[in-house]
Amino acid sequence: MKVSHVSEADHDIVTAAVAAAEAPTSGEIVTVVAGKSNDYDDVALVWASIIAFLAMSIVALFPEFYRGLYDRLTGGWGHELTANQWLGMVIAFGVLKWIGVWLILLWRPLRMALTPRSIKATRVRARAIDLFKVGTEGKTTGRTGVLLYLSLKEHRADIVADEAIAAKVTPDVWGDAMAALIDHVRAGKPGEGMAEAVRQMGIVLAEHFPRGSENPNELPDRLIEL
């Protein structure tokens, strides 16, 4: 069963906002909301490897302490380890650390929290561009499509514009729309945030691409959930 990320009311709010924003412009706005943009499995792999390496390095730096710990655990009855046996124990210790960290990071909220913000921003941007190429790029007569993408888990959003818009509107122009969207998402109101962002995007589009004599609705107004 498909999990809904936003309410039906949010869908209605965003759809109405898109229709209103497109009325005075030849631009076409597509809105997409996703639960997350990436699973960040590679981030969990890196964290597990770093912690396993650090654990083995600490053992290598303080061998006498850990040899003493081994003796205490065996009650002094353990045989004296050879250099190869000791190396094998250190490696086994590192492997167990790696597996332990990997299992802990199967809990996605922790994995997300440990993912650097720059990586989240890069993955959200890449996902937005992929979606834009599939559903928006070149789909309008004047190449005036623009995608608004929101990724909820990352608390990140992005705007990707088609060729004609990108030639006239620099990315920083969308700053107010993005700020309004993120503020509302943090307040738990993603639908209202997307609607406000769409409203501000419509103002920009109307300035640069006013409505012509013919203004077909070439892209869907509805909010798309992934």
UniProtKB/TrEMBL annotation:
The keyword Membrane applies. InterPro entries: TPM_dom (IPR007621). The chain crosses the membrane at residues 44-66, 86-107. Gene3D superfamilies: 3.10.310.50. Residues 117-201 form the TPM domain. Keywords: Membrane, Transmembrane, Transmembrane helix. It holds the Pfam family TPM_phosphatase. This is Putative membrane protein. It comes from Sphingopyxis italica.
